[in-house]
Design brief:
9 strands; globular; alpha/beta; 235 residues
Length: 235
């Protein structure tokens, strides 16, 4: 994947944003970063709903997760960038694969994607989603992140807690051999999550796509080769 430089014809295209009266400095810096982000501009040109689409594209190019005919669940899907990529790569529009997007927020329709406004942590969610898929999933994806508090340790714990809930859901819906990918943060707080994934999957690793900002602690945990639901030991 070619990374855009943000320069054209030898001139810098960087845009600076003035701090408006009602806009905080942090909001101004975020807006400036968005305006100068080559992935944001590329997403607009190529019709993706978010720059996050390129994170999944890179992971799939590297790891070959999304196969034609695959059944995929996208947790916390809105606004839909990952669902767009998944639908194209499993060929859902051609009727070969299926993608189910799940979110508490409503989302504009995407061709080839079935959408459920639902809490994936509900007790009935696994069976509900499997019914929508027409069977067990080949992959569960989560790009969810809790709202940042600005306190690093708290933010790490909250995002890992979301990933742990997503992993619980994945183990209830995945077919043997399936994969799970979820956003986490660097910082060493996900030891329990990694141990659990290593028990349930044959391979577990961290991946940081180029589309993840270099100054961000964001990375993804990728577990492949689901071993199947583990039976609880007899008492």
């Amino acid at each position: 994947m070619t990374k855009e430089s943000g320069r054209e014809g030898g001139r810098s295209l960087k845009t600076r944003v003035k701090t408006a009266r009602k806009r905080s400095l942090s909001s101004t810096l975020w807006l400036e970063r968005q305006l100068n982000d080559p992935y944001v501009a590329r997403a607009k040109r190529e019709g993706y709903r978010s720059r996050a689409a390129y994170k999944l594209i890179e992971m799939d190019d590297r790891c070959h997760l999304l196969q034609p005919g695959g059944r995929i669940v996208d947790l916390g899907a809105a606004p839909g960038g990952w669902s767009q990529v998944a639908a194209a790569r499993v060929k859902a529009k051609e009727g070969k694969g299926k993608v189910v997007a799940v979110d508490l927020l409503d989302m504009e329709p995407i061709a080839g994607v079935a959408f459920a406004v639902k809490d994936f942590n509900d007790a009935d969610a696994p069976e509900f989603i499997k019914n929508m898929l027409g069977g067990e999933a080949d992959g569960v994806m989560s790009d969810m992140a809790a709202n940042a508090t600005g306190h690093k340790a708290t933010d790490h714990l909250r995002i890992v807690a979301l990933a742990e809930l997503a992993a619980d859901f994945a183990c209830d819906v995945l077919a043997e051999g399936g994969f799970f990918v979820a956003k986490v943060l660097q910082g060493g707080t996900e030891g329990q999550l990694l141990a659990r994934l290593k028990r349930d999957f044959s391979t577990v690793r961290h991946v940081k796509p180029a589309a993840s900002r270099a100054d961000s602690a964001e990375l993804y945990v990728l577990a492949t080769g689901f071993r199947g639901r583990q039976e609880a030991p007899a008492s």
